[in-house]
Amino acid sequence: MQTEIRYVCSQDKAFWFGLDRHLPEAEFEKKVRDRQGYVLLENGEPQGILRWNLFWDNTPFCTMCHVDPRARRKGFGRRLTERWESDMRSQGYGMVLSSTQVDEDAQHFWRKLGYKDCGGLTVDVPGYEQPMELFLCKALQRERE
């Protein structure tokens, strides 16, 4: 089996929105343009995505890492995250962030990858209520030269 991770491109739109129901369409084209998204393919077939932006305009923040449910438990989420972390490290960033709701299992995924809890956000505005959003951070170690 051959696995490839590449930047998202416009041709990925249908697959992308099959997994990501939160990203507005206009933002998808920005992810393509700014290389702020990845697609993981296995034998040429897309299996997962990762998207990110800059939190506070200076800290890489993974806003979604999602693998097709039929392709889970194969290490694809880990590979997507490691690729993103490597790219962030090579761009000179020393720390990355992610988040998940406290009632979701994703927090365990992030902790297995070395992320630590670093805070939370509670939203109780009518119409926008949700369980607390747990923020996680990870220091990026410099690659040995």
Structure commentary:
The chain has 145 residues and is of the alpha+beta class. It is built from four helices and seven strands; from the N terminus they run βααβββαβαββ. It has helices spanning 13-19, 25-34, 76-90, 106-112, and strands spanning 3-7, 37-42, 45-55, 59-67, 95-101, 116-123, 130-139. It has a seven-stranded mixed beta sheet, sandwiched between helices. Strand 6 (116-123) and strand 7 (130-139) form a beta hairpin. The longest helix has 15 residues, at 76-90.
Q: Keywords for this structure?
A:
145 residues, alpha+beta, seven-stranded mixed sheet, 27% helix
Q: What is the compact description of this entry?
A:
This protein is an alpha+beta fold.
Query: How is the biggest beta sheet arranged?
Result: 7 strands, mixed
The percent range for strand residues is 35-45%
Name the helicity range.
25-40%
Low-confidence stretches: none
Gyration radius, to the nearest Å? 15 Å
Mean pLDDT across every amino acid position: 95
How would you sum up the global shape?
globular
Q: Helices and strands: which structural class?
A: alpha+beta
Helix count, per DSSP?
Answer: 4
Distance between the termini: 30 Å
Helix-strand pattern = EHHEEEHEHEE
Q: How many strand elements?
A: 7
**Largest sheet, spatial ordering of strands:** 1-2-3-4-5-7-6
Question: Could you outline the blueprint of secondary structure elements for this entry?
Answer:
Elements: E1 3-7, H1 13-19, H2 25-34, E2 37-42, E3 45-55, E4 59-67, H3 76-90, E5 95-101, H4 106-112, E6 116-123, E7 130-139
Parallel strand pairs: 4-5
Antiparallel strand pairs: 1-2, 2-3, 3-4, 5-7, 6-7
